[in-house]
Amino acid sequence: SSTLASTYSSGSQNEKQIVTTDLWQKCTESHTGTSASAPLAAGIIALALEANKNLTWRDMQHLVVRTSKPAHLNTNDWATNGVGRKVSHSYGYGLLDAGAMVALAKNWTSVGSQRKCIIDILPEPKDIGKFLEVRQKVEACWGKANSVVRLEHVQARLTLSYN
């Protein structure tokens, strides 16, 4: 999922909406959606960065995951992942919690440098046909300098050609 966490923003006219400044020195009571959510998230992240100026983008991702709360967000796709955290395709790890994030950020120890393990799985072209399933057991470059200890991201790079 592309959603790491969420903030309040409302989704429809019958829900409570965000009050904010508007054009022509006015206010609006109907600010909604990602236009409302993104600035709230940016403000919360700015508070964490103010609490600890040494945080990296990866540190921030860890703080977001560890402090977000599923709260009362309703969706049928909540699942518990491999480390016991609730996660949803709709809401990510839940609502950002500014107080919890700032508190954790104050004494945060950096997660360290990122390690990348690049593995070529299909060196030769394969015919897809109706479908193609590829399975590969990997050991995260075990025993090498770039050995992955904690998995944060997975990227699959594909080159497709159509005849």
Description of the structure:
This protein has 163 residues and is α+β, with helices and mostly antiparallel strands. The chain has a domain at 18-107. It contains three helices and four strands; from the N terminus they run E-E-H-H-E-E-H. Helix 1 (33-51) runs parallel beside helix 3 (98-106) and helix 2 (57-67) crosses helix 3. The longest helix has 19 residues, at 33-51. It is extended.
SSE arrangement:
Layout: E1 18-22, E2 26-31, H1 33-51, H2 57-67, E3 79-80, E4 86-87, H3 98-106
Antiparallel strand pairs: 1-2, 3-4
Helix pairs in contact: 1-3, 2-3
* Category from helices, strands and their pairing: alpha+beta
> What is the succession of H and E elements?
EEHHEEH
> Main β-sheet, in a few words?
2 strands, antiparallel
Average pLDDT rating = 88
| Number of distinct beta strands | 4
Q: Could you tell me the radius of gyration in angstroms?
A: 21 Å
Overall 3D form: extended
Classify the beta-strand content into a percent band: 5-15%
- Low-pLDDT runs: none
Strands ordered across the widest β-sheet: 1-2
DSSP helical segment count: 3
Q: How much helicity do the residues have? A: 10-25%
**Alpha-carbon distance between the two ends:** 31 Å
Condensed summary:
The protein has about 160 residues and is α+β, with helices and mostly antiparallel strands.
Keywords:
163 residues; alpha+beta
